[in-house]
Amino acid sequence: MELDTQDVEQRVSTGALPGWDAVEEHVAAAYERSRGATGGVVADYIPELAAADPDLFGVCVVETDGAVHAAGDAAVPFSIQSISKAFVYALVCDALGHEVVRDRIGVNNTGLAFNSVIAIELNDGHPMNPMVNAGAIATTALMPGGSPEAQWHVVQDGLSRFAGRPLELDEVVYASEAATNHRNRAIARLLESYGRVDVDPLAVVDVYTRQCALLVTAEDLAVMGATLADGGVNPVTGEQVVSQEVCRDTLAVLASTGLYERSGEWLFEIGLPGKSGVAGGIVTVAPGKGGIGVFSPRLDPAGNSVRGQRATAYLSRALGLNIFASAAHDAPPDGSTDGDRGGAR
Ligand code: GLN
Q1: From 31, 174, 208, 314, active-site residue
Q2: N- to C-terminal Cα distance for the chain?
Q3: Residue 334 — very low, low, confident or very high, per pLDDT cuts 50/70/90?
Q4: Is 260 a catalytic residue?
């Protein structure tokens, strides 16, 4: 597609969060209002994930000025799982550029489950979507480094820079998934057969399995999300982790694909780019404003945290984050609609 954007400066269009006290209050309210939701089930297809305490629940918002607001179990570690896909994608985009990643991986929703094999077949071997397993494995294969071990270190280091602290591997979760991930190995072999993975497919799955077993907290996810909200600068460490353009591209992909086959419903209800993982984490990004990290292990049938979705929906609405929401230009600034509209329009 030929677009007239090459030499046009990227201007940004974002608002501000309400003041510190209001954000603090709403994070506490998001936790209180959703803690009673006990629907959903803990993932068990990775045996070790079934051991998670289903009652854990943490909520955190990190603003682009570095302010942190946390409630509940926001400091409890869990494996990042599919949320890693968003950040590995950003790192690969940063290394290889917009066009290469768009052409090699794709940016479209498959409309099928995260571990779908048929999605590859239906698209002539094109992985289509970097936020489901096929596209994520193909993305990890593009990671710079030259060897699987070096690629793993680039992934671990890159995700740690997003989080602003060194992230550790959960050896038990890694071993548990490595012993049972036959489906992901099949996906990698299928991609190889279509010429979509140039390196050893099983070695790539091993790097991918490790990236999914990195331990994070809800607070880490909020910092990682806030980095994508802040033009690629980690608001806590001040480090430029990826470029401003990479944040924009990554968030566009998350908006259409971050919640698997429920991405449309998520955008309709919450109106923000987000990414979920099967251990119960969700990261959500409000461009220019901040990141939301939530964690609770009970999942809906698509693999998204039930409480996490509820808490994020509340925050999106209460903090004015939905990127599609607007008010008439002469309406009162609180967004209410009973103002005197007056004036020529
Ligand atoms: N490691 C998991 C897998 O590949 C991640 C899936 C997820 O979080 N949806 O199956």
Answers
A1: 208
A2: 37
A3: low
A4: yes
Q: Rounded to the nearest 5°, which phi and psi values hold at 216?
A: -135, 170
Residue list, ligand 1 pocket, CB within 6 Å? 81-82, 114-115, 133, 177, 184, 212, 277-278, 303
Q: Which atom of ligand 1 is nearest to the CA of 212?
A: 1
Contact of 282 with 304, CB cutoff 8 Å: yes
Domain ranges of the chain: 20-318
Counting Cβ atoms within 10 Å, is residue 57 exposed (0-12), middle (13-18) or buried (19+)?
buried
Q: Select from 322, 86, 324, 131 the least CA-distant residue to 225.
A: 86
Q: Is-catalytic flag, 289? A: no
Residue 172 appears among annotated catalytic residues: no
Residues in the chain: 345
Report the candidate in 278, 279, 251, 280 with the shortest Cα–Cα distance to residue 267.
Answer: 251
Assess whether 31 carries a catalytic annotation: no
pLDDT bin (cut points 50, 70, 90) of residue 336 is low
Question: With contact defined as beta carbons under 8 Å apart, do 218 and 295 qualify?
Answer: yes
DSSP letter for each residue of 71-100: EESTT--EE-TTHHHHHHHHHHHHHH-HHH
In degrees to the nearest 10, what's the CA dihedral of 73, 77, 80, 86? 70
Mean pLDDT of the chain: 92
For position 120, what pLDDT does the model report?
86
Question: Domain 20-318 maps to which CATH number in 3.40.50.720, 3.30.300.70, 3.10.180.10, 3.40.710.10?
Answer: 3.40.710.10
Q: Is the pLDDT of residue 282 over 90?
A: yes
